[in-house]
Amino acid sequence: MQTASADASTRRYYRIKHADASLIVMDDPPATNSIQRFLEINQRLSGIGANVPKIFHYCETEGFVVLEDFGSSHYLHAITQTHRSMESRYTIYETAMTALSAIQNQADSGSLPGYNDELITTELGLFRSWYVEHHLNKKLSQQQETVFTEVVELCRHIFAEQPHCFVHRDYHSRNLMLTNSQAPGILDFQDAVLGPVTYDVVSLLRDCYFEWPEEFVEHFCQWHRRQLPFEVASEEYRRWFDISGMQRHLKVLGIFARLWYRDGRAQYLADLPLVLRHIRRIIPRYPELTRLGVMLDELHPS
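Now predict its structure.
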């Protein structure tokens, strides 16, 4: 079954049989406007040849779409199969990176909402409200609030510094499907924005559900950097990548906690340690993150 994105608490998917075919019904309350967004972004992506589901029927007033079924084998299943070699996993992710590069270079990003300061701040606020206050049952001290504000400002600066392009916003192993095509079947793109060029790369290579060796991450970072239609030094690119990833993973800590405490979806709690490791991995690389590391130690004294 195709799955909803991590923060889409109201969206549901159902598999149905029609004649000899299997179809997916996406059911989302009309008030969310997700159906309209889904249809619009689907058209933009299909227009450049991206492998997104075909639309067979939809009703915006009722809030549902009948679409192509990409099956049940997403990239996470594929890369965690024990019989797969690293070379095979490399090939799978090469197709994902190729598809992403095409989207960034070709997809129409006109009129997409921007990944602006307000959205960055709102997303990072999920870390405070749902991870710290609900999950850890703590409150940030005045000093920790100062550190948190510094982190927000750093993320705003790094997001603004990068060239912007079409950003899927949840481009990861559970939203990419193995299909009969060489290209991945791409799901859950309705929250697309105009945002920093490294954001989707981080989503894929610093996956919240699977940990790649560092040399694998570095290889594809450099591959992506060379595909960009502008010059950027390797060190500057990695700084964009790392800080964008920190913003994403602080946000995801809040989202995963919210999925349990608000929506009763406990399975995401098991992924919190990996998300924390992603954050801790980059802190030693940047002196301006030292105080964030101290704050995390204070919040996790054990």
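Residues 72-299 form a domain with the Aminoglycoside 3'-phosphotransferase; Chain: A, domain 2 fold (CATH 3.90.1200.10).
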